[in-house]
Design brief:
7-stranded parallel β-sheet; 18 strands
Amino acid sequence: MATSDDGYLRYFPYEEPYDHQQEAMATIFEALEDGRDVLFEGACGTGKTLASLVPALEHARETNKTVVITTNVHQQMRQFVADARAITDQERLRAVVFRGKGSMCHIDVDYEECQALRDTTRDLVETEQDIADLEQREGELLEAGQEGSSEAMEARDAVVDELRGLQDDLEELESERSTCDHYYRNLTENTEAFYGWLYDDVRTPDDVYEYAHERGMCGYELLKEGMDGVDLVVCNYHHLLDPTIREQFFRWLGRDPEDIIAVFDEAHNVESAARDHARRTLTENTLDQAIDELDGVDDDRAGAAGNVLSTFRDALVEAYEESFGFGDREQVDDHWEDITVANDDRKDDLTLAFLQGYTGPGFHEELSTAVELGRDLDARYEEQFKEGKLDTRKECQTLQAAAFLDDWLAESDEHGQYPVVSVRRDESTDAVYGRAELYTCIPEEVTRDLFEELHASVLMSATLRPFDVTEDVVGLDDPVTMAYGAQFPEERRRTYAVDGPALFSSERDDPQTQQTIARTLEDVIRFTPGNTLVFCPSYSEARRYYEMVAVSGTRYLDEPGTQARDLREAFVDGDDGVLFTSLWGTLGEGVSYDGEDARTVVVVGVPYPHLDDRMEAVQDAYATTFADSETGTTSDDAGWRYAVEIPTVRKTRQALGRVVRSPDDFGARILLDKRYTEAAEMEMHDYAVRGTFPPEERREMVDIDPEKLKFAMLNFYQDMGAYDGPPPKP
């Protein structure tokens, strides 16, 4: 076991760290001591998780802080649990794995209802305890009175009166108010055994749920109440990126933000995750429910609130109805589809329709009235639920609608906020309805405050470079940066840049282009001794080549809405199969394919995302924000580079990393498009992407013609001794 003057090595659970791991740990520990953030890129096999956790845990123990490690990839959560268990086997620490209430609730109620049940249950238990205390006091006073104390008898009479009042309260709580039996047991039974069990190992949320379920208790609340001051928490991104959840989460930890060290895994995803957590939406259905709610409210403010919300509802309908051309309404399905409402030279169409349609004393005044009334109604619903007058905790639709409209009118024309209207079809009624959304284009507006509040953060990923772009996009100031390339033997991998057709969107339907790609894929699959992964620019392209490619092995097609986990298991259980999927699907990162699970990976084309209105808005926002006259970066260059090219190359690098997962593993990575070649840098410079890859990855790329690829693969896999029998004949 490792021993050293470096105190953090006591948390390292294996014999000794690699040299690069030791270097990374020292760098991170020094950065944490200085309160600086870290950007840490490391290829598969660099041991990023332990290199980040080990110094973070040591610094946290020295300074009385908590380490929070977070990811948005389920498989990584399982790996974190395994690493935490290995650490606690060596150096005891209190670790919890936290998950949202929805997946841990034993009675399946939403958050607001759960909160109200918790409050009334606590009232019940406190009333029972007060009664028990008063009964004991009444007995003591009775005994003193029987011994001749008149003061004691007078005091007893007062206690008896108070007892009667509390017993009436208890009867009401037991018969009329909503409570939770599971949480009641948490408050009334001894929980020491649970916490002894919890911290004897690293327990998963499923472990906690089962333990509590067997005893009729609430595991979620037990876990929350036991998190105060723990050493390590494993959780999902939303516990840190959602401002409301984050505030509660830190309160459960008993920590201020400056007492938190955050480790973000797969940190290249923080950009999109932050954007998703910042989005705010309001559906036409919610507006209808708010208007119906106001119709039933006996309050002088209801008329004003109803007027402003009805106007916005009518404007929403007008905005999407006017967008429909002939036959468009009939094409709307049960998935949200955006329509364009933003304008370059004036307010968006929805806001314009609202302003033109509004009649009344003033929409600002009526909107303020709607928000105020919504807050009062929401408080009323909570009290009614606690008193047992409502079976469930009612949501105030007026408050939701009014608060959103307030944000919309204040922010929809602000830089970085993009107004969106979407439509979908309700399968149950076949009716088309709309949704308004404020889409946050620049993640920094969400993440900068977080990183400034925390003591320090470590953002780690296999694809964080270029670091300057990551710094800009998420709002980091002067972080420590370090990168470690592939640590496995270079001779056991090959990266081929195939000088095949440039798969521009305008060329994808060309029959000759399709035939060249299909024949090249057939060669790749035939000469791969094991399974082949094929990543395409979209699901439709994946289907195209799934249908065109003729091979003897089993073909698998990943499609939207399918269970990717089941598909992956079927794929890796087979031999010499090929799986076609989209690079933008769920199988391109955070999923391991070890050994023959996937020997070869192919990225077809340069899989740029579809440039819809949202992506165009992000590109425009980045262009304005990150253009730099000093470096000569124009607005167009910055927008394209930050919003499109770099995220695409990161996704491509993630896909290439699905193979060669250990020192003994081997495999081929194929980039099937001439834009990856070195020649493209000269011949089609504006479209070449090779220069966006890190230098050490570019050095490994071997440019090759499509016709020669099979010979190169044959030679490589023969050198690896990969073929069980005679190799395929070219």
